[in-house]
Amino acid sequence: MNFWHFIICSTFFLSFATSDLDEDLKRILDIYNDNPECHFNYTEISSKTVKFFPKCPSVAGIIVINNNTDLSSKQLEKAFSKLSNFSGGILIENSNLTDLSFFPPKVFKFYCDNYGMFIRNNEFLTNADYLIQLSYIPYAGARECPLSIENNPRLDLSEVCNSQSYTVTELTEMTTKGNLVNCGCQGGEEMLSSSLQDFSDCSIMYGGLNLINVTDTESLSALSNLHDIRGSFNIQNSNFQNLSFLSKLENMCFRSESLVFNLQNNLNMTRLELPTLRSIQNPLWLSITIFENLHPDFCLTIDEFKRLTEMWIGFQKLDAKLCEPSADEYRLCRFVSMADLLNNCVTIIGKVVIGEGDDDHATKLMRVKNIFGTLTIQNTQLKNFSFFDQLSMIVHLEDSDPVIKILGNKNLTYPKIGSISAIHTRFNKTAIIQDNHPKIFNWTNGTCELFGNSPYKMDLLVTYRRMLDYVGEDCGARVDLLSSFDPRMMTFISLIALLWFLV
Ligand SMILES: *[C@@H]1O[C@H](CO)[C@@H](O)[C@H](O)[C@H]1NC(C)=O
Ligand SMILES: *[C@@H]1O[C@H](CO)[C@@H](O)[C@H](O)[C@H]1NC(C)=O
Ligand SMILES: *[C@@H]1O[C@H](CO)[C@@H](O)[C@H](O)[C@H]1NC(C)=O
Ligand SMILES: *[C@@H]1O[C@H](CO)[C@@H](O)[C@H](O)[C@H]1NC(C)=O
Ligand SMILES: *[C@@H]1O[C@H](CO)[C@@H](O)[C@H](O)[C@H]1NC(C)=O
Ligand SMILES: *[C@@H]1O[C@H](CO)[C@@H](O)[C@H](O)[C@H]1NC(C)=O
Ligand SMILES: *[C@@H]1O[C@H](CO)[C@@H](O)[C@H](O)[C@H]1NC(C)=O
Ligand SMILES: *[C@@H]1O[C@H](CO)[C@@H](O)[C@H](O)[C@H]1NC(C)=O
Ligand SMILES: *[C@@H]1O[C@H](CO)[C@@H](O)[C@H](O)[C@H]1NC(C)=O
Ligand SMILES: *[C@@H]1O[C@H](CO)[C@@H](O)[C@H](O)[C@H]1NC(C)=O
Ligand SMILES: *[C@@H]1O[C@H](CO)[C@@H](O)[C@H](O)[C@H]1NC(C)=O
Ligand SMILES: *[C@@H]1O[C@H](CO)[C@@H](O)[C@H](O)[C@H]1NC(C)=O
């Protein structure tokens, strides 16, 4: 993963407002092109242009208020009084404004994702509370609006930052700096050029946490007040053993469908250690996560797997082991055989095999929620897997064996497995399905699928997270089980062959 690519992807929209204003205006008007008579065609609002501000309820353009704006707050208020819907951008810079009360008093909808709002260098601006009631569209489930409030030396943003307004509190990339009081501090790209000491008062970080090439572990204590990180989390090329320096971190908030949680090339990292973390939010998608090239002993606990899964993480790369479980782990069993298995296991570690003659033992699995290992169901006469109704997570970290094998179950006509919410694997995410009842996938009209689908949005995340590569004759091409999937068996066969030859 190229670091700059990662940064650029996560903050690409910041470039929107840096190019020439006329170009930007043209771009905006091309996007919202349905009502040209409701376009504001000027890149500045002043006594010369205000008469061209459309009297429509729904206007598109860029409202620029700057040092050429020779209009009072009252005059601006009048110009905007009809406005209930505005698409494009708002730029307020070098003005003499003291507040933003000139916007229409009733909530107006600001379609801001193609430009955003920039408020900077306004020497007299003291109050921006209007931002609390502004309705940013899109605000949920879509791209974030760029919002930047900089260098307004008299502006105290604490009301805005502390408001429960969803519009402000859901933003992850908002920039506030150089004001009398800012909203949290700025991480992201800027973090790379600053010293960690600058963050010692920081409890909310916008723009994401970026620690690249940091090897001075002493300085990390400056991050110990951080309880809220908004924007992607990215730690690379460090010598950290774990993340315990984020000792108060409670919330992470992302807004992205691509990589947001990245731990890469941290060769001393053996543990995660984020015990206070209680929420990871991403209104757009699973929080895509990479744990890659860490210490060879890097491990996650059973509890960490459960919590990260509940917080809707999706692993794109998972170079991890399972930490040695503690003795008091709730109803933990190690798999030896179905005959030996206890009745009430909730978590099983090991390669679970339900084989010939185990049919009657299958009901022992009725309470199992998590399997750390693989699942093989082979040569049984089971008709269905209804005993797996509770099974919700499978984690397979040991080798590239298929995570699920369903082989030679001649009576199996309903192979639906549990209510699985995640399958996490370190290597391949393969299932082999072969030699079962010829109508095994009649229930899905022939589609090779063990979990079934349902139409809800949450289920889309689930469907993605438990998706398997299905192989085997019941799904397509026959797999030669001996040669491709069991190297030990191959060694054994070659040994027999060798002995045979010698004899
Ligand atoms: C803005 O410009 C377009 C195209 O030049 C024109 O059709 C439209 O009437 C103008 N809008 C206003 C409000 O003047
Ligand atoms: C407005 O501010 C800009 C940037 O500070 C400056 O270059 C320009 O001369 C100013 N214009 C007026 C009319 O004051
Ligand atoms: C802003 O205030 C300064 C002095 O206070 C004044 O010279 C200037 O004309 C004002 N600018 C505008 C656009 O009203
Ligand atoms: C407001 O503007 C957006 C984008 O131009 C448009 O999709 C929406 O229908 C408008 N809403 C109203 C009430 O005019
Ligand atoms: C990190 O270090 C590597 C190798 O020393 C260098 O190529 C890279 O540019 C550095 N990255 C940053 C963000 O400092
Ligand atoms: C976490 O790292 C710190 C040093 O940064 C170390 O003192 C501590 O023992 C580590 N904790 C675990 C569980 O590895
Ligand atoms: C990191 O690991 C290297 C090699 O394993 C070791 O020499 C070094 O002391 C470790 N650094 C820290 C801070 O633990
Ligand atoms: C599953 O199979 C058992 C017998 O093996 C049967 O009693 C039960 O009704 C079946 N359940 C479903 C949902 O088909
Ligand atoms: C499985 O199917 C075979 C024939 O297809 C039948 O003889 C046998 O009784 C079935 N087993 C069960 C448990 O239903
Ligand atoms: C793992 O997956 C890769 C790519 O799908 C495939 O080439 C490889 O043979 C698989 N390995 C095993 C052991 O299944
Ligand atoms: C397969 O499903 C069809 C309907 O989708 C049904 O008519 C048929 O009886 C089923 N066959 C078996 C063997 O269950
Ligand atoms: C299977 O196909 C039948 C008929 O085309 C349809 O009614 C049924 O909903 C389908 N079932 C599934 C699980 O796709």
UniProtKB/TrEMBL annotation:
It comes from the Eukaryota. The keyword Signal applies. Pfam families: Recep_L_domain. InterPro entries: Rcpt_L-dom, Rcpt_L-dom_sf, SPS2_domain. Residues 201-304, 344-437 form the Receptor L-domain domain. Residues 1-19 form the signal peptide. This is Recep_L_domain domain-containing protein.
